[in-house]
Design a protein that fits this description.
By secondary structure, the chain is of the alpha/beta class. The chain contains twelve helices and 36 strands. Strand 34, helix 10 and strand 35 form a beta-alpha-beta unit. The N and C termini lie far apart (about 70 Å). The N terminus is likely disordered.
Length: about 575
């Protein structure tokens, strides 16, 4: 049954179908699908950023808008669902079909928008020395100035032509008219400029306009300089100094027009550049671990550890063991070996593979896959009846009774312990787990026997009394009365991890992982442990906790490795960490 119905609300109704003498009731569903009718204006700049009104039906709940397959941005949707305001993307000249995706799928109506190459507006013609950026000698190019009128809509576009490209400014909510000046300057701003590379001039943008809600700034890329700085376009960011504090305000890289764009609410210095940090990230935790291994270990390693990427307890102690053995930690799913892990294991060609944890976390099917993948390599499983026994078993397989140091962490959390993995690796020491708090707090028998066997001269407890209770600490003292005991505790997990990191020598490499999830830190801890580098834990976004900032200031890193993608550690955190680099 096919029918076209207008003016009804979404519903499922019974419809009677008559065929001869037979009447049959069937369900007939009326749905509100997104429909497009018109667009205004019908054309705009290839540079993008034009405000476009799309009219139609059932636009409420719109999730995405594309122009010829290139994503634009949704500004607002009318409450009656009959119109929406969007912003066009940068796209080569030509006609492009607009498609709006709503809760029930994409629109199928044909509504076109034409991209037109604009005529550059150059108010102050390029002149003077400098000839094209690079922050080099000869002085910077001349500035550009242009008047801007607020208009009734509060939206306005300004283009400022400089010797090395055009600066494009798109205002929202501009209250009054005035003028805009972009002044290219060589070098770097004199404040908060650590940890970045600027492959060209920075821009001191000033204005006499009144208040505005926001402005999108698209600054030109000095493409001739990228190769000499070892940079590619996708590494570039737009930095904005607000009250002398640097922020990464990047929203997009316009490769068509060679600009980097970002949104700000004030004017002051802007610069196109790149962070000096090294970010290692994959599509998921498994690929991130594989990429970290590939960047840290050569083929022919003595051992590779395979741990679950779904839970942290059994895998925590593997980092310290990997630091002692000089091998990576790779992640697997419960019932299948990820292809990225398999590929990295083939490249590593380890002399031995150790699977950490019982069949509840790494099944026998994964073990079989490893044996098939590496038929001449011994593959063994190390496990215990629980997380505490597994860590004790791994210690017994890896560490001799040398009378050194033992690290103790709570098996009920991971943030502090991930920082401790790096420290344990530096000291070539084992990491044991205990139920540090709660009604079962104590030292399990498996752990007590392993401590007696190791007979350490010193014990390092990771976490304050809220994480590892006085009951546990007293039991450790009773078990090993001749050993010294140091307990690292802080106001929170980030503080504790920072205190552990501050025990490292300054001036080297620092690994940075999120303290919100464990997976990236597991593999990162092994890499840091093998090389004797500290690992700091940071929140996924926002601002750096004060203890982390203090640790960075003390450690004075020459290199920072950020673990995971921007969902794990956002650009604002990475930017804040980078300020402590030279």
């Amino acid at each position: 049954v096919t029918a076209t119905v207008f003016g009804f609300s979404p519903t499922t109704s019974a419809v009677t179908v008559q065929s001869g003498q037979t009447a049959t009731d069937v369900d007939f569903t009326l749905e509100r699908r997104t429909a497009l009718a018109a667009v205004s204006p019908t054309s705009g700049s290839t540079e993008g950023g034009d405000t476009v009104t799309v009219t139609g039906l059932h636009l409420t709940g719109a999730m995405a808008v594309t122009f010829g397959g290139v994503s634009g941005s949704i500004v607002s949707v009318a409450s009656d669902g009959r119109s929406m305001v969007v912003r066009s993307p940068a796209k080569p000249a030509g006609s492009a079909a607009i498609v709006v995706t709503g809760p029930l799928g994409a629109s199928t109506d044909t509504v076109n928008f034409t991209f037109v190459t604009p005529t550059p507006v150059v108010v102050s013609p390029p002149s003077g020395g400098g000839g094209g950026g690079g922050g080099g000698g000869g002085g910077a190019p001349s500035p550009a100035t242009q008047a801007v009128s607020a208009g009734s809509s509060g939206n306005a576009r300004v283009q400022l032509g400089l010797a090395f490209g055009t600066v494009v400014l798109d205002f929202d909510g501009l209250a009054s008219s005035g003028s805009i000046t972009a002044m290219p300057k060589a070098g770097k701003p004199s404040f908060d400029a650590g940890g970045i590379v600027l492959p060209g001039y920075w821009l001191d943008i000033t204005s006499s306009v009144g208040e505005f809600e926001s402005v999108e700034v698209c600054a030109p890329i000095e493409t001739n300089n990228l190769a000499s700085y070892g940079l590619t376009k996708d590494q570039l960011r737009l930095f904005h100094w607000e009250n002398n504090v640097r922020k990464d305000v990047t929203t997009r890289v316009d490769s068509v027009n060679n600009r980097v764009c970002g949104v700000a609410s004030s004017f002051s210095p802007f610069a196109v550049g790149a962070l000096k940090t090294t970010r290692i990230a994959g599509l998921d935790r498994y690929e991130t671990a594989a990429k970290l291994s590939a960047s840290s270990f050569t083929s022919g390693v003595a051992v590779a550890y395979v741990v679950t990427g779904e839970k942290f307890p059994d895998a925590l102690a593997a980092g310290a063991a990997a630091g002692r053995s000089g091998g990576p930690v790779l992640l697997t799913r419960l019932n299948s070996l990820p292809s990225v892990t398999a590929t990295e294991l083939k490249r590593l060609a380890p002399r031995r593979v150790i699977v950490v944890g019982g069949t509840a976390v790494v099944s026998d099917s994964v073990l079989s896959a490893l044996l098939e993948l590496l038929p001449v390599v011994p593959v063994e499983r190390v496990w215990g009846q629980d997380r505490f026994a597994t860590a004790a078993q791994l210690s017994a397989r890896t560490f001799a009774a040398s009378g050194g140091t033992v690290y103790i962490g709570s098996g009920l959390g991971f943030t502090e312990i991930l920082a401790g993995v790096a420290a344990a690796g530096r000291d070539k020491s084992p990491l044991l787990l205990v139920p540090g708090s709660g009604p079962n707090a104590g030292v399990p028998l498996d752990v007590a026997f392993e401590l007696k066997r190791l007979n350490p001269r010193s014990i390092v407890v990771l976490g304050g009394s809220g994480l590892v209770s006085p009951v546990v600490v007293d039991t450790l003292r009773e078990l090993l009365p001749g050993a010294s005991l140091t307990q690292f505790g802080g106001a929170d997990a980030y503080d504790t991890a920072a205190k552990v990191a501050r025990t490292f020598v300054a001036g080297g490499t620092i690994y940075v992982a999120t303290g919100a999830v464990f997976a990236d830190g597991l593999a990162g801890g092994a890499a840091a442990a093998t090389r004797g580098h500290p690992m700091l834990m940071v929140p996924p976004s926002g601002s750096l906790p004060a203890p982390v900032a203090q640790a960075l200031a003390q450690l004075r890193p020459q290199r920072v490795v950020v673990l995971g993608g921007t969902a794990a550690i956002a650009r604002d955190i990475e930017n804040a960490v980078a300020t402590y680099l030279p």
